[in-house]
Amino acid sequence: MVDLLKASGLCGGYGDVQVLHDVALTVKAGEIVCLIGSNGAGKTTLLRVLSGMAKSTAGSILFADQDLRGLPAQEIVRRGIAHVPEGRRLFAGMTVRENLLMGSYLRGDGRAVINKDLDFVLATFPKLAERLHQDASTLSGGEQQMCAIGRGLMANPTLLMIDELSLGLSPKLVGELSKALTEINRAGQSILLVEQDVATALRLASTGFVLDTGRIVLSGPSNELVANPSVREAYLGMTAA
Amino acid sequence: MLYVQILINGILLGGLYACIAVGFSLVWGVLNVINILHGSFIVLGAYLAFFAYTGLGIHPYLFAPFAALVLFMLGYAVQLTVINRVIEAPVLVTLTTTFGLALLLDNLMLVVFAANFRKVSLKPPLGVIDLSDTFPSIDLIVPVDRLASMLFALVFVALLYWLLRHTVVGRAIVAVRMDRYAATLMGVDTTKVFAVTFALGAALAGAAGALLSPIFPISPLAGTTYLGKAFVICVLGGLGSVSGALVGGLVLGVLESFGALFFGPEHSLTLSFTVLILLLIFRPNGIMGKRGFV
Predict the structure, then answer these.
(1) What is the ipTM of this complex?
(2) Best to test chain B binding among A14, A78, A102 (most B CBs inside 10 Å)
(3) Domains of chain A, earliest start first
(4) N or C end of chain A, less CB within 10 A?
(5) Are A77 and B185 an interchain contact pair (Cβ–Cβ within 8 Å)?
Protein backbone atom coordinates (compact mmCIF):
# COMPACT_ATOMS: atom_id res chain seq x y z
CA MET A 1 0.00 0.00 0.00
CA VAL A 2 1.07 3.58 -0.65
CA ASP A 3 2.11 5.82 2.21
CA LEU A 4 -0.57 8.50 2.50
CA LEU A 5 0.88 10.34 5.46
CA LYS A 6 4.47 10.03 6.54
CA ALA A 7 5.67 12.14 9.44
CA SER A 8 9.28 11.85 10.44
CA GLY A 9 11.56 13.54 12.93
CA LEU A 10 8.63 15.64 14.03
CA CYS A 11 9.14 17.98 16.99
CA GLY A 12 6.60 20.49 18.20
CA GLY A 13 4.49 21.88 20.99
CA TYR A 14 3.11 25.13 22.32
CA GLY A 15 5.24 28.23 22.70
CA ASP A 16 8.47 27.25 24.39
CA VAL A 17 7.12 23.95 25.64
CA GLN A 18 8.22 21.08 23.48
CA VAL A 19 5.73 18.23 23.62
CA LEU A 20 6.73 16.03 20.69
CA HIS A 21 10.21 14.61 20.27
CA ASP A 22 11.34 13.10 16.98
CA VAL A 23 8.00 11.49 16.18
CA ALA A 24 7.68 9.20 13.18
CA LEU A 25 4.27 7.97 12.05
CA THR A 26 2.96 6.51 8.83
CA VAL A 27 -0.59 6.05 7.60
CA LYS A 28 -1.01 3.95 4.48
CA ALA A 29 -3.81 4.68 2.06
CA GLY A 30 -7.02 2.92 2.99
CA GLU A 31 -6.06 1.77 6.48
CA ILE A 32 -7.13 2.67 9.99
CA VAL A 33 -4.18 3.62 12.18
CA CYS A 34 -4.53 4.19 15.87
CA LEU A 35 -2.42 6.35 18.09
CA ILE A 36 -2.55 5.25 21.71
CA GLY A 37 -0.98 6.43 24.89
CA SER A 38 -1.85 7.69 28.33
CA ASN A 39 -3.08 11.12 29.33
CA GLY A 40 -0.62 13.86 28.47
CA ALA A 41 1.44 11.67 26.15
CA GLY A 42 1.06 14.18 23.33
CA LYS A 43 -1.55 12.44 21.17
CA THR A 44 -3.76 15.50 20.75
CA THR A 45 -0.71 17.71 20.19
CA LEU A 46 0.44 15.41 17.40
CA LEU A 47 -2.93 15.67 15.69
CA ARG A 48 -2.85 19.45 16.11
CA VAL A 49 0.59 19.64 14.56
CA LEU A 50 -0.60 17.51 11.65
CA SER A 51 -3.62 19.75 11.06
CA GLY A 52 -1.65 22.98 11.42
CA MET A 53 -3.23 23.99 14.74
CA ALA A 54 0.00 23.70 16.74
CA LYS A 55 3.52 24.61 15.74
CA SER A 56 6.18 22.11 14.73
CA THR A 57 9.81 23.04 15.12
CA ALA A 58 11.52 20.28 13.14
CA GLY A 59 10.84 17.29 10.95
CA SER A 60 8.60 16.75 7.96
CA ILE A 61 4.98 15.85 7.31
CA LEU A 62 4.67 14.28 3.90
CA PHE A 63 1.08 13.99 2.74
CA ALA A 64 0.59 12.64 -0.77
CA ASP A 65 4.32 13.35 -1.23
CA GLN A 66 4.08 17.04 -0.36
CA ASP A 67 5.41 18.58 2.84
CA LEU A 68 2.60 20.08 4.89
CA ARG A 69 4.76 21.43 7.67
CA GLY A 70 4.21 25.14 8.30
CA LEU A 71 1.10 25.39 6.14
CA PRO A 72 -1.90 27.20 7.67
CA ALA A 73 -4.78 25.04 8.89
CA GLN A 74 -7.13 25.96 6.07
CA GLU A 75 -4.57 24.90 3.47
CA ILE A 76 -4.22 21.52 5.17
CA VAL A 77 -7.99 21.05 5.12
CA ARG A 78 -7.94 21.96 1.45
CA ARG A 79 -5.27 19.34 0.75
CA GLY A 80 -7.48 16.66 2.30
CA ILE A 81 -6.94 16.23 6.02
CA ALA A 82 -9.97 16.64 8.26
CA HIS A 83 -9.51 16.80 12.03
CA VAL A 84 -12.39 15.82 14.30
CA PRO A 85 -11.38 17.53 17.55
CA GLU A 86 -11.48 16.15 21.05
CA GLY A 87 -14.76 17.01 22.76
CA ARG A 88 -16.61 17.23 19.36
CA ARG A 89 -16.76 21.05 19.43
CA LEU A 90 -19.93 21.34 17.39
CA PHE A 91 -21.27 24.80 16.66
CA ALA A 92 -23.97 25.40 19.27
CA GLY A 93 -26.93 27.32 17.95
CA MET A 94 -26.51 25.78 14.51
CA THR A 95 -28.62 22.85 13.44
CA VAL A 96 -27.15 19.44 12.76
CA ARG A 97 -27.43 20.09 9.04
CA GLU A 98 -25.70 23.47 9.35
CA ASN A 99 -22.91 21.86 11.34
CA LEU A 100 -22.45 19.18 8.72
CA LEU A 101 -22.39 21.77 5.96
CA MET A 102 -19.71 23.76 7.81
CA GLY A 103 -17.51 20.72 7.16
CA SER A 104 -17.77 21.39 3.43
CA TYR A 105 -16.96 25.08 3.91
CA LEU A 106 -13.89 25.11 1.64
CA ARG A 107 -15.22 22.87 -1.08
CA GLY A 108 -15.85 24.39 -4.44
CA ASP A 109 -17.83 21.36 -5.60
CA GLY A 110 -21.35 22.05 -6.69
CA ARG A 111 -24.33 21.69 -4.41
CA ALA A 112 -25.26 18.38 -6.01
CA VAL A 113 -21.94 16.76 -5.06
CA ILE A 114 -22.11 18.11 -1.52
CA ASN A 115 -25.70 16.94 -1.10
CA LYS A 116 -24.61 13.48 -2.20
CA ASP A 117 -21.97 13.45 0.53
CA LEU A 118 -24.56 14.71 3.00
CA ASP A 119 -26.78 11.78 2.05
CA PHE A 120 -23.84 9.42 2.59
CA VAL A 121 -23.21 10.83 6.07
CA LEU A 122 -26.89 10.55 6.96
CA ALA A 123 -27.00 6.99 5.66
CA THR A 124 -23.97 6.16 7.81
CA PHE A 125 -25.49 7.82 10.89
CA PRO A 126 -29.28 7.50 10.52
CA LYS A 127 -29.78 9.11 13.94
CA LEU A 128 -28.49 12.38 12.51
CA ALA A 129 -31.14 12.27 9.81
CA GLU A 130 -33.82 12.21 12.52
CA ARG A 131 -32.31 15.25 14.20
CA LEU A 132 -31.26 17.14 11.09
CA HIS A 133 -32.98 20.41 11.99
CA GLN A 134 -32.35 20.29 15.70
CA ASP A 135 -29.83 22.52 17.47
CA ALA A 136 -26.61 20.48 17.62
CA SER A 137 -26.11 21.34 21.29
CA THR A 138 -29.28 19.40 22.15
CA LEU A 139 -27.85 16.12 20.87
CA SER A 140 -26.73 13.33 23.19
CA GLY A 141 -23.01 12.69 23.53
CA GLY A 142 -23.04 9.83 21.05
CA GLU A 143 -25.04 11.81 18.52
CA GLN A 144 -22.68 14.73 18.92
CA GLN A 145 -19.75 12.49 18.13
CA MET A 146 -21.60 11.20 15.06
CA CYS A 147 -22.23 14.77 14.01
CA ALA A 148 -18.59 15.71 14.57
CA ILE A 149 -17.38 12.74 12.51
CA GLY A 150 -19.99 13.50 9.86
CA ARG A 151 -18.81 17.10 9.76
CA GLY A 152 -15.27 15.83 9.21
CA LEU A 153 -16.44 13.55 6.42
CA MET A 154 -18.21 16.47 4.74
CA ALA A 155 -14.78 17.91 3.94
CA ASN A 156 -14.40 14.89 1.66
CA PRO A 157 -11.00 14.20 3.24
CA THR A 158 -8.34 11.82 2.03
CA LEU A 159 -7.41 11.34 5.67
CA LEU A 160 -9.85 11.61 8.56
CA MET A 161 -8.27 12.20 11.95
CA ILE A 162 -10.45 11.54 15.00
CA ASP A 163 -9.40 12.61 18.48
CA GLU A 164 -10.84 10.60 21.38
CA LEU A 165 -13.62 8.73 19.67
CA SER A 166 -14.97 7.08 22.82
CA LEU A 167 -14.58 9.95 25.30
CA GLY A 168 -17.55 9.98 27.66
CA LEU A 169 -19.58 7.46 25.66
CA SER A 170 -21.19 4.21 26.78
CA PRO A 171 -19.69 0.91 25.52
CA LYS A 172 -22.81 0.36 23.41
CA LEU A 173 -22.34 3.70 21.65
CA VAL A 174 -18.64 3.06 21.18
CA GLY A 175 -19.59 -0.23 19.52
CA GLU A 176 -22.00 1.57 17.20
CA LEU A 177 -19.43 4.19 16.27
CA SER A 178 -16.76 1.53 15.70
CA LYS A 179 -19.06 -0.28 13.33
CA ALA A 180 -19.72 2.92 11.42
CA LEU A 181 -16.01 3.69 11.17
CA THR A 182 -15.29 0.20 9.87
CA GLU A 183 -17.95 0.72 7.21
CA ILE A 184 -16.54 4.10 6.23
CA ASN A 185 -13.08 2.58 6.07
CA ARG A 186 -14.33 -0.23 3.82
CA ALA A 187 -15.59 2.42 1.46
CA GLY A 188 -11.96 3.53 1.15
CA GLN A 189 -11.57 6.16 3.86
CA SER A 190 -8.15 6.33 5.53
CA ILE A 191 -8.45 7.08 9.25
CA LEU A 192 -6.03 8.13 11.96
CA LEU A 193 -7.63 7.47 15.32
CA VAL A 194 -6.48 8.81 18.67
CA GLU A 195 -7.93 6.78 21.48
CA GLN A 196 -7.44 6.23 25.19
CA ASP A 197 -9.49 3.06 25.13
CA VAL A 198 -6.64 0.92 23.85
CA ALA A 199 -8.67 -2.26 23.45
CA THR A 200 -11.20 -0.54 21.17
CA ALA A 201 -8.45 1.23 19.26
CA LEU A 202 -6.47 -1.91 18.52
CA ARG A 203 -9.61 -3.79 17.55
CA LEU A 204 -10.52 -1.11 14.99
CA ALA A 205 -7.10 -0.34 13.57
CA SER A 206 -4.77 -2.47 11.51
CA THR A 207 -1.69 -0.61 12.68
CA GLY A 208 -0.93 1.05 15.99
CA PHE A 209 1.55 3.59 17.32
CA VAL A 210 2.20 4.01 21.03
CA LEU A 211 3.08 7.51 22.18
CA ASP A 212 4.67 8.06 25.56
CA THR A 213 5.87 11.46 26.85
CA GLY A 214 6.04 12.76 23.31
CA ARG A 215 7.96 9.88 21.80
CA ILE A 216 6.80 6.92 19.73
CA VAL A 217 7.90 4.02 21.87
CA LEU A 218 6.28 1.16 19.99
CA SER A 219 4.55 0.57 16.69
CA GLY A 220 3.40 -2.30 14.56
CA PRO A 221 0.37 -4.30 13.40
CA SER A 222 -2.45 -4.17 15.93
CA ASN A 223 -2.49 -7.93 16.55
CA GLU A 224 1.19 -7.81 17.51
CA LEU A 225 0.64 -4.84 19.81
CA VAL A 226 -2.26 -6.58 21.53
CA ALA A 227 0.03 -9.49 22.23
CA ASN A 228 2.91 -7.32 23.37
CA PRO A 229 3.43 -7.78 27.13
CA SER A 230 4.32 -4.15 27.84
CA VAL A 231 1.21 -2.90 26.01
CA ARG A 232 -0.90 -5.44 27.87
CA GLU A 233 0.49 -4.32 31.16
CA ALA A 234 0.59 -0.57 30.63
CA TYR A 235 -2.57 0.01 28.62
CA LEU A 236 -4.82 -3.01 28.85
CA GLY A 237 -4.51 -3.48 32.58
CA MET A 238 -3.36 -7.06 32.34
CA THR A 239 -0.30 -8.35 34.06
CA ALA A 240 2.14 -10.14 31.82
CA ALA A 241 1.50 -13.85 31.81
CA MET B 1 -53.85 57.86 24.38
CA LEU B 2 -50.79 59.69 25.61
CA TYR B 3 -49.17 56.43 26.66
CA VAL B 4 -49.84 54.91 23.25
CA GLN B 5 -48.25 57.94 21.65
CA ILE B 6 -45.19 57.56 23.89
CA LEU B 7 -45.07 53.88 23.03
CA ILE B 8 -45.12 54.69 19.32
CA ASN B 9 -42.33 57.24 19.78
CA GLY B 10 -40.33 54.67 21.69
CA ILE B 11 -40.72 51.99 19.06
CA LEU B 12 -39.76 54.41 16.29
CA LEU B 13 -36.65 55.30 18.24
CA GLY B 14 -35.98 51.67 19.10
CA GLY B 15 -35.71 50.52 15.49
CA LEU B 16 -32.97 53.06 14.95
CA TYR B 17 -31.30 52.04 18.19
CA ALA B 18 -31.26 48.43 17.06
CA CYS B 19 -29.34 49.47 13.95
CA ILE B 20 -26.93 51.51 16.09
CA ALA B 21 -26.23 48.55 18.35
CA VAL B 22 -26.25 45.54 16.06
CA GLY B 23 -22.86 46.19 14.49
CA PHE B 24 -21.28 46.90 17.86
CA SER B 25 -22.78 43.71 19.21
CA LEU B 26 -21.56 41.68 16.22
CA VAL B 27 -17.97 42.87 16.59
CA TRP B 28 -18.00 42.29 20.31
CA GLY B 29 -19.46 38.82 19.94
CA VAL B 30 -17.26 37.58 17.11
CA LEU B 31 -13.94 39.34 17.69
CA ASN B 32 -14.29 39.83 21.44
CA VAL B 33 -13.35 43.44 20.79
CA ILE B 34 -15.23 46.26 22.50
CA ASN B 35 -15.16 48.67 19.63
CA ILE B 36 -15.05 52.19 21.07
CA LEU B 37 -14.77 53.44 17.47
CA HIS B 38 -18.34 52.39 16.79
CA GLY B 39 -19.87 55.67 17.98
CA SER B 40 -17.42 57.68 15.88
CA PHE B 41 -18.25 55.54 12.84
CA ILE B 42 -21.92 56.45 13.34
CA VAL B 43 -21.05 60.14 13.49
CA LEU B 44 -18.90 59.82 10.36
CA GLY B 45 -21.82 58.15 8.57
CA ALA B 46 -24.05 61.04 9.65
CA TYR B 47 -21.56 63.62 8.33
CA LEU B 48 -21.24 61.81 5.02
CA ALA B 49 -25.02 61.89 4.73
CA PHE B 50 -25.11 65.57 5.71
CA PHE B 51 -22.61 66.57 3.02
CA ALA B 52 -24.21 64.29 0.46
CA TYR B 53 -27.52 66.07 1.09
CA THR B 54 -26.29 69.65 1.33
CA GLY B 55 -23.65 69.29 -1.39
CA LEU B 56 -25.09 66.82 -3.84
CA GLY B 57 -28.74 66.78 -2.91
CA ILE B 58 -28.78 63.03 -2.28
CA HIS B 59 -31.49 62.10 0.18
CA PRO B 60 -30.07 60.56 3.41
CA TYR B 61 -32.25 57.47 3.07
CA LEU B 62 -30.94 56.86 -0.42
CA PHE B 63 -27.44 57.65 0.73
CA ALA B 64 -27.46 55.14 3.61
CA PRO B 65 -26.21 52.20 1.50
CA PHE B 66 -23.31 54.34 0.24
CA ALA B 67 -22.44 55.43 3.77
CA ALA B 68 -22.45 51.74 4.66
CA LEU B 69 -20.14 50.95 1.75
CA VAL B 70 -17.65 53.70 2.62
CA LEU B 71 -17.57 52.66 6.26
CA PHE B 72 -17.27 49.00 5.25
CA MET B 73 -14.06 49.78 3.39
CA LEU B 74 -12.75 51.96 6.20
CA GLY B 75 -13.57 49.27 8.76
CA TYR B 76 -11.90 46.55 6.71
CA ALA B 77 -8.73 48.63 6.42
CA VAL B 78 -8.67 49.55 10.11
CA GLN B 79 -9.11 45.94 11.17
CA LEU B 80 -6.46 44.52 8.83
CA THR B 81 -3.84 47.19 9.47
CA VAL B 82 -4.31 48.00 13.15
CA ILE B 83 -6.67 45.86 15.18
CA ASN B 84 -5.49 42.60 13.68
CA ARG B 85 -2.10 43.17 15.32
CA VAL B 86 -3.63 43.06 18.79
CA ILE B 87 -6.54 40.72 18.15
CA GLU B 88 -5.06 37.92 20.30
CA ALA B 89 -4.28 40.32 23.15
CA PRO B 90 -6.49 40.61 26.26
CA VAL B 91 -9.70 42.59 25.82
CA LEU B 92 -8.29 45.63 27.65
CA VAL B 93 -5.60 46.03 24.98
CA THR B 94 -8.04 45.94 22.08
CA LEU B 95 -10.34 48.28 23.99
CA THR B 96 -7.52 50.75 24.50
CA THR B 97 -6.56 50.46 20.84
CA THR B 98 -10.06 51.26 19.61
CA PHE B 99 -10.31 54.02 22.23
CA GLY B 100 -7.16 55.60 20.80
CA LEU B 101 -8.47 55.26 17.27
CA ALA B 102 -11.75 56.85 18.37
CA LEU B 103 -9.87 59.82 19.82
CA LEU B 104 -8.02 60.21 16.53
CA LEU B 105 -11.16 60.00 14.43
CA ASP B 106 -13.18 62.29 16.72
CA ASN B 107 -10.51 64.99 16.68
CA LEU B 108 -9.99 64.60 12.96
CA MET B 109 -13.70 65.22 12.49
CA LEU B 110 -13.50 68.16 14.87
CA VAL B 111 -10.77 69.72 12.73
CA VAL B 112 -12.35 68.95 9.38
CA PHE B 113 -16.05 69.47 10.15
CA ALA B 114 -15.73 72.00 13.05
CA ALA B 115 -17.66 71.70 16.29
CA ASN B 116 -20.92 73.26 15.02
CA PHE B 117 -24.02 71.22 15.53
CA ARG B 118 -25.55 70.42 12.18
CA LYS B 119 -28.70 68.75 11.10
CA VAL B 120 -30.07 67.52 7.84
CA SER B 121 -33.20 69.63 7.33
CA LEU B 122 -35.16 67.85 4.69
CA LYS B 123 -36.79 70.16 2.17
CA PRO B 124 -39.65 69.76 2.04
CA PRO B 125 -40.02 68.28 5.54
CA LEU B 126 -41.67 64.88 5.63
CA GLY B 127 -44.26 66.03 8.16
CA VAL B 128 -46.43 63.78 10.25
CA ILE B 129 -49.18 61.27 9.72
CA ASP B 130 -52.09 62.42 11.86
CA LEU B 131 -54.19 59.37 12.58
CA SER B 132 -57.09 61.52 13.79
CA ASP B 133 -57.56 62.66 10.18
CA THR B 134 -58.79 59.21 9.21
CA PHE B 135 -59.97 57.92 12.57
CA PRO B 136 -61.35 60.90 14.47
CA SER B 137 -61.42 58.94 17.73
CA ILE B 138 -57.70 58.10 17.59
CA ASP B 139 -55.61 61.09 18.56
CA LEU B 140 -52.15 59.89 17.54
CA ILE B 141 -49.44 61.24 15.28
CA VAL B 142 -46.56 59.46 13.58
CA PRO B 143 -43.61 61.60 12.43
CA VAL B 144 -42.80 60.42 8.92
CA ASP B 145 -39.04 61.05 9.11
CA ARG B 146 -38.74 58.89 12.22
CA LEU B 147 -40.96 56.22 10.72
CA ALA B 148 -38.88 56.11 7.54
CA SER B 149 -35.62 56.05 9.50
CA MET B 150 -36.87 53.19 11.61
CA LEU B 151 -38.07 51.18 8.63
CA PHE B 152 -34.80 51.62 6.74
CA ALA B 153 -32.86 50.80 9.90
CA LEU B 154 -34.84 47.60 10.29
CA VAL B 155 -34.09 46.75 6.64
CA PHE B 156 -30.36 46.94 7.42
CA VAL B 157 -30.78 44.82 10.53
CA ALA B 158 -32.76 42.29 8.50
CA LEU B 159 -30.07 42.28 5.80
CA LEU B 160 -27.44 41.45 8.41
CA TYR B 161 -29.63 38.66 9.75
CA TRP B 162 -30.07 37.26 6.27
CA LEU B 163 -26.35 37.49 5.58
CA LEU B 164 -25.43 35.65 8.77
CA ARG B 165 -28.07 33.02 8.21
CA HIS B 166 -27.84 32.25 4.52
CA THR B 167 -24.48 33.14 3.04
CA VAL B 168 -21.18 31.28 3.19
CA VAL B 169 -19.46 34.33 4.71
CA GLY B 170 -22.22 34.65 7.28
CA ARG B 171 -22.00 31.01 8.28
CA ALA B 172 -18.26 31.42 8.72
CA ILE B 173 -18.81 34.48 10.94
CA VAL B 174 -21.28 32.59 13.11
CA ALA B 175 -18.96 29.58 13.28
CA VAL B 176 -16.08 31.77 14.44
CA ARG B 177 -18.40 33.37 17.00
CA MET B 178 -19.41 30.01 18.43
CA ASP B 179 -16.03 28.26 18.35
CA ARG B 180 -12.99 29.90 16.82
CA TYR B 181 -10.87 26.75 17.08
CA ALA B 182 -13.42 24.46 15.46
CA ALA B 183 -14.05 27.04 12.73
CA THR B 184 -10.35 27.01 11.87
CA LEU B 185 -10.49 23.22 11.63
CA MET B 186 -13.27 23.61 9.05
CA GLY B 187 -10.86 25.68 6.98
CA VAL B 188 -12.26 29.09 7.93
CA ASP B 189 -9.64 31.84 7.63
CA THR B 190 -10.28 33.63 10.91
CA THR B 191 -8.19 36.68 10.00
CA LYS B 192 -10.39 37.31 6.99
CA VAL B 193 -13.56 36.65 8.96
CA PHE B 194 -12.45 39.14 11.61
CA ALA B 195 -11.83 41.80 8.97
CA VAL B 196 -15.18 41.20 7.26
CA THR B 197 -17.00 41.20 10.60
CA PHE B 198 -15.40 44.44 11.69
CA ALA B 199 -16.16 45.96 8.30
CA LEU B 200 -19.80 44.86 8.58
CA GLY B 201 -20.02 46.43 12.02
CA ALA B 202 -18.65 49.67 10.62
CA ALA B 203 -21.02 49.48 7.63
CA LEU B 204 -24.02 49.20 9.94
CA ALA B 205 -22.71 52.15 11.96
CA GLY B 206 -22.41 54.16 8.73
CA ALA B 207 -25.94 53.27 7.67
CA ALA B 208 -27.29 54.10 11.13
CA GLY B 209 -25.49 57.45 11.00
CA ALA B 210 -27.03 58.33 7.66
CA LEU B 211 -30.49 57.28 8.84
CA LEU B 212 -30.38 59.31 12.03
CA SER B 213 -28.95 62.44 10.35
CA PRO B 214 -32.42 63.90 9.62
CA ILE B 215 -33.51 63.31 13.24
CA PHE B 216 -30.64 64.05 15.61
CA PRO B 217 -28.18 66.94 15.52
CA ILE B 218 -24.74 65.94 14.23
CA SER B 219 -21.61 66.92 16.10
CA PRO B 220 -18.09 65.44 16.04
CA LEU B 221 -18.32 64.47 19.68
CA ALA B 222 -21.72 62.77 19.60
CA GLY B 223 -19.99 59.43 19.19
CA THR B 224 -19.81 58.67 22.89
CA THR B 225 -23.58 59.10 23.29
CA TYR B 226 -24.24 56.53 20.55
CA LEU B 227 -21.57 54.25 21.96
CA GLY B 228 -23.22 54.41 25.38
CA LYS B 229 -26.56 53.48 23.85
CA ALA B 230 -25.01 50.58 21.91
CA PHE B 231 -23.48 49.37 25.15
CA VAL B 232 -26.75 49.47 27.07
CA ILE B 233 -28.61 47.76 24.23
CA CYS B 234 -26.05 44.93 24.10
CA VAL B 235 -26.44 44.32 27.80
CA LEU B 236 -30.22 44.58 27.54
CA GLY B 237 -30.58 42.19 24.63
CA GLY B 238 -27.61 39.90 25.05
CA LEU B 239 -24.34 40.00 23.24
CA GLY B 240 -23.54 39.14 19.66
CA SER B 241 -27.00 38.38 18.38
CA VAL B 242 -29.17 40.23 15.90
CA SER B 243 -32.36 39.39 17.75
CA GLY B 244 -30.79 40.58 20.99
CA ALA B 245 -29.89 43.95 19.48
CA LEU B 246 -33.41 44.26 18.07
CA VAL B 247 -35.08 43.53 21.40
CA GLY B 248 -32.55 45.61 23.32
CA GLY B 249 -32.99 48.53 20.93
CA LEU B 250 -36.77 48.49 21.17
CA VAL B 251 -36.70 48.15 24.95
CA LEU B 252 -34.28 51.05 25.30
CA GLY B 253 -36.27 53.20 22.89
CA VAL B 254 -39.53 52.63 24.78
CA LEU B 255 -37.80 53.02 28.12
CA GLU B 256 -36.26 56.35 27.18
CA SER B 257 -39.55 57.65 25.85
CA PHE B 258 -41.43 56.81 29.03
CA GLY B 259 -38.52 58.01 31.12
CA ALA B 260 -38.72 61.35 29.36
CA LEU B 261 -42.43 61.53 30.15
CA PHE B 262 -42.23 60.64 33.84
CA PHE B 263 -38.91 62.14 34.84
CA GLY B 264 -38.33 64.72 32.11
CA PRO B 265 -36.22 64.27 28.98
CA GLU B 266 -33.03 65.22 30.82
CA HIS B 267 -33.26 62.00 32.83
CA SER B 268 -33.79 59.55 29.98
CA LEU B 269 -30.10 58.57 29.95
CA THR B 270 -30.03 58.25 33.73
CA LEU B 271 -32.95 55.87 33.50
CA SER B 272 -31.39 53.70 30.82
CA PHE B 273 -28.12 53.42 32.70
CA THR B 274 -29.97 52.59 35.90
CA VAL B 275 -31.62 49.75 34.03
CA LEU B 276 -28.21 48.75 32.69
CA ILE B 277 -26.78 48.48 36.19
CA LEU B 278 -29.80 46.53 37.44
CA LEU B 279 -29.50 44.13 34.53
CA LEU B 280 -25.79 43.66 35.07
CA ILE B 281 -26.57 42.67 38.63
CA PHE B 282 -29.61 40.48 38.05
CA ARG B 283 -29.46 39.23 34.49
CA PRO B 284 -25.97 39.67 33.07
CA ASN B 285 -26.68 37.56 29.98
CA GLY B 286 -29.38 39.94 28.77
CA ILE B 287 -33.09 39.56 28.20
CA MET B 288 -32.57 37.16 25.29
CA GLY B 289 -29.76 35.26 26.99
CA LYS B 290 -26.40 34.38 25.58
CA ARG B 291 -27.19 31.50 23.30
CA GLY B 292 -28.74 33.17 20.29
CA PHE B 293 -26.27 34.18 17.61
CA VAL B 294 -28.45 35.54 14.82
Answers:
(1) 0.91
(2) A102
(3) 1-80+161-166+190-241 (3.40.50.300), 82-156 (no CATH)
(4) C
(5) yes
CATH number of the domain at B2-282, out of 1.25.40, 2.60.40, 1.10.3470, 3.30.300? 1.10.3470
Nearest CA in chain B to A84: B185
The answer for B 179-198 residues in CB contact with A (under 8 A) is 179, 181-189
Counting residues of chain B whose pLDDT is more than 70, the rounded percentage is 97
Answer yes or no: is pLDDT of B290 > 60: no
pLDDT score for A50: 96
pLDDT in tens, B208-259: 999 999 999 999 989 998 999 998 898 888 877 888 899 999 999 998 888 8
Check if A86 contacts B (Cβ < 8 Å).
no
More confident residue, B261 or A146: A146
Per-residue DSSP letters for chain B? -HHHHHHHHHHHHHHHHHHHHHHHHHHHHHH----THHHHHHHHHHHHHHHHHHHH---HHHHHHHHHHHHHHHHHHHHHHTGGGGTTS-HHHHHHHHHHHHHHHHHHHHHHH-S--B----SS---EEEHHHH-TT---EEEHHHHHHHHHHHHHHHHHHHHHHHSHHHHHHHHHHH-HHHHHHTT--HHHHHHHHHHHHHHHHHHHHHHHTTTS-B-TTTHHHHHHHHHHHHHHH-TT-HHHHHHHHHHHHHHHHHHHHHH-GGGHHHHHHHHHHHHHHH-TT-TT-S----
Q: Show which of residues 15-44 on chain B sit within 8 Å of chain A, judged by CB atoms.
A: none
- A68 lies within 8 A of chain B by CB: no
Rounded Cα distance, B29 and B160, in Å: 14
pLDDT of residue B292: 47
B208 close to A (CB below 8 A): no
* Domain coordinates in residue numbering, chain B: 2-282
Note whether B188 contacts A94, CB cutoff 8 Å.
no
CA distances from A10 to A5, A69, A71, A167, A228 (A): 13, 9, 15, 26, 25
Task: Tell me the residue ranges of DSSP E strands in A74-182.
Answer: 81-84, 159-163
Mean pLDDT of chain B: 90
CB pairs under 8 A between A and B: 63
pLDDT tens column, B34-77: 999 999 999 999 999 999 999 999 999 999 999 999 999 999 99
